[in-house]
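re: that chain from earlier
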Amino acid sequence: MILDTNVISEFAAPVPSSAVVDWFSSVPEDGLYVPAIVKAEILLGIELLPEGWRRSTLESFVANFLLPYEQGRILPFEDADAPYYARVVSARKAKGRPVSVLDAQISAIAVRRGLPIATRNVRDFEGCGVTLINPWDPAP
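^ sequence. v structure.
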């Protein structure tokens, strides 16, 4: 399963959602992946912060959170993902729902590998051909 930026960011909140914490605890860790694109989004958010306590704290949090993923569970956008990206973008355009480049790349990574995406922003990925899981929603 692919973790979207908002899932990882939730753990940096002063009081993370108990639904997300419970969901995360119930998922086998070795089945979780982080796209390099998501890592870049998180690092950019930190980079844009002024120097200080908050930035330092978030840098430490991200380094510690991502550490287990650094050994083969950070997924790059590869040449083989390109056709999936093209299909995702064209399918969304055909429905009159453009998709951001980053979300289309994340979707392509997920579709090619047959992985669902865990995200709060379900709308951003609807119609991209991926299974979506919203950890903020209680299981039916």
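The longest strand covers residues 2-3.
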